[in-house]
Amino acid sequence: MIAEGPSANLPPHIWLEPVLLLSRSLKPAVLGLAALSALNLAGCDRQSGDGAQPAAQASGTTQAADAAPTKGADRSHKGAALPDFTFADPKGGKLALASLGSKPLLINLWATWCAPCIKELPTLDALAKAGKVRVLTVSQDSAEPAKVGQFLTDKGLAKLEPWLDPENQLAFHYMTGTLPTTVLYDSHGREVWRFVGENDWASAEASALIAEAK
Prior knowledge:
alpha+beta, Glutaredoxin, two-stranded antiparallel ribbon, 31% helix, disordered N terminus
């Protein structure tokens, strides 16, 4: 079955599921190439604007999109520790997750070619501006990650930081094949829930979810 309609209305982007299934058997170098290929393929018919590709040219991702997981908060990993990863921004700044303070943390995995990600970014920006939770947007772009900062600037998203994860460490850590994926941690660095798919993070429902972090 081929999904129809504008890319912004399609199910969340599934781009690493086949690679994750191979992660236990492939050598790291080979796995990295497989991940990059999956990302590039998923971007073919999921971009917004004139660069979008016909769905027929990306049948692999179309099949995956038809099997998109049910959207909602998943608490099956509640209590898991915040991973000890370090990320950079386009200007060379560094951020170690382990160094973050005693404030609830919302990590959002996104990409510039992901239409559902782009759609929810303004609500994440509003959430970051409110200041009740630290919002950490981590780009999964593998191609030209240096453009991520300019992308956020062009969209007027002043409160979102362009942290880069071109090797997709977080996607593999969370074993997610879908963008966007958002994970909430409490002030002690313990996972509260993870949310797969687009959401309105400025809604009352989202506020209730975020209030679960103490």
